[in-house]
Amino acid sequence: MPVNIESVRAAARAIAGSVVHTSCLHSRTLSKIAGAQVFLKFENHQFTASFKERGALNRLQSLDTAQRASGVIAVSAGNHAQGVAYHAQRLAIPAVIIMPRFTPHVKVIHTRNFGAEVLLHGENFDEAMNYAHEVMRERRLVFVHPYDDELVIAGQGTIALEMLDAYPDLDTLIVPIGGGGLIAGMAVAAKSLKPDIEVIGVQTARFPSTHCALRETEPQYGESTIADGIAVKAPGLVSFEIVRRLVGEVLLVEEGDIEEAMLLLLEIEKTVVEGAGGVALAALLKHRERFAGKRIGLLLSGGNIDPMTLADIIERGMVRAGRLTRLHVHMRDLPGSLAAVTRILAEVNANIEEVHHQRTFTTAPVQSAEVEFVVRTRDREHVRQIIEALAQAGFRRLGRLRR
Question: In CATH, what class is 5-51+150-316?
């Protein structure tokens, strides 16, 4: 069945009450920062913290009695796996999930906790996919594709129905693209309800598969990206044809853009997103002029992120904002010298986090030392004041270092 507004509406009826009708809220602060009216769709508030539940459930609901008894199989390193496993458990459908061998352990545990049989196989997604087809044939399971399936695409399109129901006057939707199932479904729904609405896709510059496919150019891929949920090297066949027809443009964002967006959402909206969940805001902020004055719907597609990764992003964001700074100071290796520097830092309200005192592994003269301070500061202007205070006291700063 082709994906159209009726299939999306049918999906909405099929999944109603079994997935969260997530909030779509106006952000006054982000609107001011972006120079546009910004409305956020919080799909990171789904039970499994991702929009993937919608398409997975719509596909599972379509199975007949024999197919449900046989069970399903899916390939995923994260969100799709959890969406399939959770709703298969609810519907008493046996589920097998194939994950690459190096999938983070926490994602494996979460998927198993939903009752799925998890098999780790292959070094990457493609190898896991090939193995999944072998298992599917051997066990006669039904394959639930993460993005290239009409019912999955229709399920994802229900997000656009909800956004336009809440805010019918949206001018633009900005949507992450991995394999394309999400944006394809949303574009079908949005363009059917409001033909003049603009649907814009976003990919990371390290995995620009759809961006390049639309331009018929050869993509160059990076080794990894913080937006691993959309690190797909080839768009789906069904989804790409819809994207070609209905999506206005696919923008690219860099890793730093994504980290900045994730930190802003944490600070301003008090919401945690994964890398893929932050790319829509990253694109808006990177291309402010293009979207100036418009009413923009941004999709926060998911919130599954490792806490250690999140902690690192927060620290890196503080460095970029001048709120966490490393200083190298050259001083005489005499009693009281270190105390003098720390006194100056205290006087200018710099909070010391770390001190590393180096006498041996340095090119400084004998009876001299290099000391590295990691200090919490207010902003870049505060950093400048600290440096001036050290210079006025006669201490030579070797340099402000970033991580």
Answer: alpha beta
Biggest CA-to-CA distance, the chain = 82
Cα 268 vs. chain centroid, distance in angstroms?
16
How many residues can be counted in the chain? 403
Q: Which of 76, 209, 239, 301 is catalytic?
A: 301
Spell out the domain ranges in the chain.
5-51+150-316, 54-143, 322-401
CA distances from 320 to 257, 272, 359, 380 (A): 11, 19, 29, 9
Please tell me the pTM assigned to this model.
0.88
**Tokens standing for residue 262:** 């994730």
Residue in 274, 360, 263, 291 with CA at minimum distance from that of residue 35: 291
Packed helices 79-90 and 52-61: angle between N→C axes, nearest 10 degrees: 40
Q: Is the separation of the CB atoms in 308 and 384 below 8 Å?
A: no
Q: Which fold has domain 54-143?
A: Rossmann fold (3.40.50)
Residue 191 annotated in active site: no
Q: What's the pLDDT score for residue 140?
A: 96
Q: Are 5-51+150-316 and 322-401 equal in CATH topology?
A: no
Q: What would the pLDDT profile of 69-91 be if each residue is shown by its tens digit? A: 999 999 987 899 999 999 999 99
pLDDT at 187 over 60: yes
Q: CATH assignment of 322-401?
A: 3.30.70.260
| Ordered DSSP codes for 73-138 | EEE-SSHHHHHHHHHHHHTT--EEEEE-TTS-HHHHHHHHHTTPEEEE--SSHHHHHHHHHHHHHH
pLDDT value at position 399? 52
Contact assessment for residue 348 and residue 385, using Cβ atoms and an 8 Å cutoff: yes
Task: Say which of 41, 52, 107, 191 is annotated catalytic.
Answer: 52
Q: Report the alpha-carbon distance of residue 118 to residue 112 in Å, rounded.
A: 6
Residue with tokens 């309800």: 193
52 is catalytic: yes
Q: What is the pLDDT of residues 269-327, one digit of tens each?
A: 999 999 999 999 999 999 999 999 999 999 999 999 888 889 999 888 888 888 888 88
Cβ–Cβ < 8 Å for 369, 379:
no
Q: Are strands 72-75 and 324-332 parallel, antiparallel or unpaired?
A: unpaired
